[in-house]
Amino acid sequence: MKKVLLSLLVLILSVSAVFAQGAAEASGADNGLIRVGIINNDPNESGYRTANDADLKRVFNEENGYDASFYYSLRNDEQIAAAQLFIQDGVDYLLLSAAGTAGWDSVLQDAYDAGIYVILFDRTVDADPSLYVAEVVSDTNLQGQTAVDWLASQNLDEYNIIHIQGVMGSSAQIGRTTALDEMVANNDNWNLVTQQTAEWNAETAQQITQAVIDSGEPFNVIYAENDDMARGAVAALDRANISHGVGGDVIIMGFDCNKWALEELLAGRWNYDGQANPFQADTIDGIIRNLENSIDPESKTIYLVEQGFDATTITQEDVDKYGI
Amino acid sequence: MTMAKTGEAGLVKAGGIFRRQIFIPIAALLALILFNLITDPSFFAINYSLNSAGDPVLSGYLITILDNASELAILAIGMTLVTAASGGQDISVGAAIAISGSVVLRVLCGDNPRPDEMQASILTAFLISCVVSMLFGAFNGALVAYFNIQPMIATLILYTAGRSIAAWINNNRLPIISDPSFGYFGSFLPGIPIPTPIFIAIICMIIIALVLKFTTLGLYTQAVGINPNSAKLNGINPSFIKFITYVIMGLCVAVAGFIKVTRFSTINYSVVALDIEMDAILAVALGGNALSGGKFSMASSILGAYVIQFLTTTLFKFNVSSSALPAYKAVVVIILVVLSAPTVREKLGKLWKNLQHARLGKEAA
């Protein structure tokens, strides 16, 4: 019985390995198309990733002159193996959103030696910058700064903030926390009522907010580092009949610009939502077009334009255009 | 002399509670209650007010604890049975909750992720998700019971694939239901000031209590967990008992998943019920149940679930900095698990007895 199972397992593994290989191999025909290998994280990971993947597919297809192959994994080692396959396969460009920052040196060196241009998008890696031509990334520090500047412009007498953080150590968390921390440290009328991580989870955010409400401590700002957590916090406010949004007692701030979140802004139930721009494909496309004409990108690190939306000025067009 | 004797008997009995399984979760609960009582008695205040929809609600830390522990308590029921019968744990419950929640939303939303009105009745959606969840439970159960794969390995499959399956069910979209009646199940029924999840958890507990009292499920499960071969010789089919516990686990998952999606009328596949399997296993362990299977105490496991939520809420209340939170939790868990070890409890029981003997000796003198 055990032997049968074991051989069955081996069979399944080998079959899936063949399929994985097949998926990573690009069709080899030379038909004047630019061949790109795209390594991304799993599109199921989040709304951001889904929008990111859809945007890449919109640009990198045959109509636009690309022969693109996609590979998805949330695991670094699988991504590295896929990158090696793409290199062996001789793609022209390797686009990479790395699951982890470490371990990419040797495979990027291989790509460099093979004359393949590597463009990092969304996430950067710990490797010598000479090994890639450009990185198209979000400036999460600026996202945080934009949000905090907006909050400062509200001119409240006192800021008593419930700060709900994302997964500790993630770049989005660090960027969005840093700006707020600095502001609180430098201004006496800015206080953190609580600062805790809800790990991107709406329910934990609700519990954190509920704990503050139950304690009776006054607060007038909820600074949640993504939309889901802001939603969780708002659920706790609704339960306690605390008014929020435009003209309400508590200012609600979120990040990521999910479509439903922007609709909350439009309805005046939230006040601010900061963008995390998943639309990198056009920028990457521009870099590749230039490289094809032997023009190097102006700088190695290219930050995406990201804005914040205010509930008092947001329009339906913004919701349709920027909602993910 | 006679007085001393009866007194002694009573005290020996009192010493016995250290060996009773339910002692650990009760002691932990009492310790947490005492701690909060000393530091801030307002922890136990309960307020009555109106929510933003104008309905009466009760609020306060205790309500929060009872409310938020509901899913965990329900999962602890299934996890206890699975543990007892198969001597292993189901680590796929978090992912399975994502699936069952996704099914509920899919049935209610149809093809439109933002429907103005629901496409089916909530009951239909719930029943369909129960069936789907029990099928996934049956899949786990079949691997464990009939293919003799270790539970953790068998459920690892669903643990890995579950959240992707959940996303696939809704074509990768995030449905949101705007009808307020859907949200009643995750918050309050209009006019009833107690959170609905508490009622759902109580109903589940009553059902499992009845099942354990009036059927042979509990007896057979323990028999299989203690020794499957001798159970077989006594006419029990061990494979079937193991299988059925995983199907029951599936049902618990469906109920917990239903509460999860009704809390916010939406779902996030990657974070919903993340790591809840670990808390569920911890609840079973805190209940003093052997993770290697065999005898179990359902009440202890359920109480264990409430202890975990009590701890979480206490840590939130004391505003423990986010980076230190897991460390505090770990310390408390270590203490509880060490206390629940049979050898430690044996020693405690002896210590208690000796103390009483010494006291009695003094009194007699």
SSE arrangement:
The complex is a heterodimer of chains A (324) and B (365).
Chain A: H1 2-24, E1 34-40, H2 47-59, E2 66-72, H3 76-88, E3 93-96, H4 105-113, E4 117-122, E5 134-137, H5 140-152, E6 159-165, H6 171-186, E7 190-197, H7 202-215, E8 221-224, H8 227-239, E9 251-255, H9 259-266, E10 272-274, H10 281-292, E11 301-303, E12 308-310, H11 316-322
Parallel strand pairs in A: 1-2, 1-3, 3-4, 4-5, 5-11, 6-7, 6-8, 8-9, 9-10
Antiparallel strand pairs in A: 10-12
Helix pairs in contact in A: 5-6, 7-8, 9-11
Chain B: H1 2-16, H2 23-39, E1 47-50, E2 56-59, H3 61-68, H4 70-86, H5 93-109, H6 122-145, H7 151-169, H8 180-183, H9 196-214, H10 217-226, H11 228-233, H12 238-264, H13 276-286, H14 298-317, H15 325-340, H16 342-364
Antiparallel strand pairs in B: 1-2
Helix pairs in contact in B: 1-16, 2-14, 3-14, 4-9, 4-10, 4-12, 4-13, 4-14, 5-6, 5-7, 5-12, 6-7, 6-12, 10-12, 13-14
